[in-house]
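Researcher: Here's the sequence for the chain we discussed earlier.
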Amino acid sequence: CPPIRNQDGCGSCWAFATTGVLECAIRIKDGINVDLSEQWLLNCNLDGYDCIDGGWWAHDYHMDTFDACGETGAVIEAACPYEAAVLPCDCPYPRAYWIDYWAYVGGEESIPPVESLKWAIMAFGPVAVGVTTSATFAGYHSGVYNNNVQGEITHAVLLVGWDDAQGVSGVWFLRNSWGSGWGEDGYMRIAYGCSSVGFGASVVDYGGDANGDGPTITRQPSGATVPQGFPHWFVAEATSAHGPVRYQWQRDGEDVSGQRPTGHFALGEVTPDDAGAYRCIVRDTQGATASHEVVLDVEPGEAPAGGYGALVLLGVLLGATGSAVSRGRRLSSRSAA
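Model: Thanks. This is the structure I predict for it:
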């Protein structure tokens, strides 16, 4: 990841975690360190997020949500340097990076299992998470932190890795935004499950500028004509020698939201609105490959009663995540450094 940042006395941890996951993704995909602007998120978000009451994940502004300037995409630090205070949104700002999508690893109000968080780090890079802070957390210097304080989620950080051999059952390597003088050069080793670490975990998918070949698709999806109210699922499979494979399904050339980043995309009870041309974009660290485009036709008619489609697809749909954001939660822990 790029160098440790410092939010100073502003409760902008939400902005630093939001930019942090994208900065790390750019480092992984493009091999360069970039410094993205947290100040722009403070100044120009339309959700009321600030230094006092804090905020929540703002990945949407790095994707397709308009800011106060009526634009989308991340801003470079040099174009809007950090001031640790909310200032006027001085439009326009040049835009440099966009994410393809983002999603919760589990749910907005839950802590995913350890293995799910490990998978997310392997597949996407560092994960943005919430954690409950305390005086002992703020005063951490070194070693394995295991003071399990329960209570309100108050801070946003990144999980960048893990070690199952440390502590009682393993530790996360936590990246903070309180400067390199805090903890172990800005990092903490925190025990699995300690202080609700992992709450609301989210990942971003950044396509990158890599020019290599993408994964090899070994199973192409199939189209079909399906009666209204019946289920249908698309399946694509791919292999790669360059780490985990990620899947993004598209309909009529647009990304399908609310899906898991896997090769299985399920429609529980199809409607005429589901008809269209579908394909899957499969990515690894070297590039992307598009599947064949297939057509789903829907025959209008009376849907079967009793949630038939949902029952058929229950096993496929369990644990589905989405990119819709509730704007109610705010994190605002300030720097203790």
